[in-house]
Design goal:
By secondary structure, the protein is α+β, with helices and mostly antiparallel strands. Helices cover 44% and strands 19% of the residues.
């Protein structure tokens, strides 16, 4: 900023018309040789120029100067190497805290490995172990019930034991029973459980008829599938406990749904007819048992008075027979018919004549 005023204060140099420029000329004391621009000027050097505002700013930015600069200052007696050591110690402390302290939830268990090998189990709470990478802790949820749906979309066709095809959709519920086996014994336990469920379901349906699968046999199928799954997973040491199997859909294929509906209707009709036949047979048996009991009572009375009972039975029988026939009393020397009272009643009833249309025959 001070260079421009200094040049303005030297008009002799700017307005000099002589041939001697700043590099010298031919008419000077040097005999015409050019003058060295970097040489000391005649009369000696000038005094040190006053520092400009730009110089002061750059000096403060570099942290120099007196009276307290604007940049960060190191404390007195501080060593940069000691600062690096302090920072490294802080990093190590944070690493130890985050890799040695483990918070295990109430529903979790911590599987501990030392250099990649199983070494123990952590119970719920805040636990302390050696830092990583010496020790690693994998948290496993042992309370959550996992639900897998089969198939993932829609339904699948499964062959039954009677060579029929069924559209099937079901759900499997399971949870982790042994965390260490769940982590180490099987590479992919989730896919293993799914494959085991599909295999067990197909094996059970291969021994089941279609009517059982779409009817009342679902409960038995679900129990058998769960039992077979648990046995297979125990053999694998998967550390998994099967909670249950639920069949969501079991129906005939869409192309055969009408035929299966007709078969189902016929089966329901057969069941209804069978129930009606059983009801009728029970009624007949009850009536026969009642008649047999009545006959037993009559027989007891007959044993007490055979002649009286025989005569009473004769009279009752004759009343039942003669009540349906015309009666005739026969006396000597002739025959006199008995007046039929039923016919007399009919004769006493008024007779209604039906009017004939005019012009018709009478």
């Amino acid at each position: 900023m001070t260079i421009l005023p200094q040049w303005l204060r030297r008009p002799s140099i700017l307005t000099n018309d002589s041939s001697n420029g700043p590099w010298g000329g031919g008419g000077d004391d040097n005999g015409g040789t050019p003058r060295n621009p970097w040489a000391v000027p005649p009369g000696g050097r000038k005094g040190t120029p006053k520092p400009t505002a730009l110089d002061e700013f750059l000096k403060k930015a570099r942290g120099g100067g007196s009276g307290g600069g604007g940049g960060p200052q190191l404390p007195l007696g501080a060593n940069p190497r000691s600062l690096w050591l302090i920072g490294l110690a802080l990093i190590v402390a944070v690493w130890l805290i985050f890799t040695s302290l483990h918070q295990i939830g109430p529903q979790q268990r911590g599987v501990v490995t030392f250099l990649g090998r199983y070494s123990g189990m952590l119970e719920p709470g805040i636990r302390l172990t050696l830092p990583a990478p010496l020790v690693a802790v994998q948290k496993v949820d042992v309370e959550a019930v996992r639900v897998d749906e089969f198939p993932r979309d829609g339904s699948e066709n499964v062959l039954t034991g009677d060579q029929n095809i069924i559209d099937l959709a079901y759900t499997v519920r399971w949870r982790v029973d042994n965390p260490s086996d769940f982590v180490f014994e099987i590479k992919d336990p989730v896919e293993t459980v799914r494959a085991t469920a599909e295999s067990a379901m197909r094996a059970v349906l291969a021994t089941t008829t279609l009517n059982q699968a779409i009817g009342a046999g679902r409960t038995d199928i679900e129990a058998r599938v769960a039992q077979m799954m648990q046995q297979i997973l125990n053999d694998y040491r998967a550390g998994v406990r099967v909670q249950g199997v639920s069949i969501r859909q079991a129906a005939a294929p869409a192309s055969l749904i009408d035929d299966f509906n007709a078969v189902t209707a016929a089966q329901q009709e057969a069941v209804a007819n069978l129930n009606n036949a059983r009801s009728y047979s029970q009624q007949v048996i009850a009536r026969a048992q009642g008649e047999a009991a009545s006959f037993d009572k009559v027989y007891e009375q007959y044993r007490l008075a055979p002649e009286v009972t025989r005569r009473r039975m004769y009279y009752e029988t004759m009343e039942a027979v003669l009540a349906k026939t015309d009666k005739t009393i026969v006396e000597t020397p002739g025959v006199a018919p008995l007046l039929p009272l039923d016919r007399a009643r009919k004769l006493q009833e008024p007779q209604v004549e039906v009017a004939q249309p005019q012009g018709g025959a009478r």
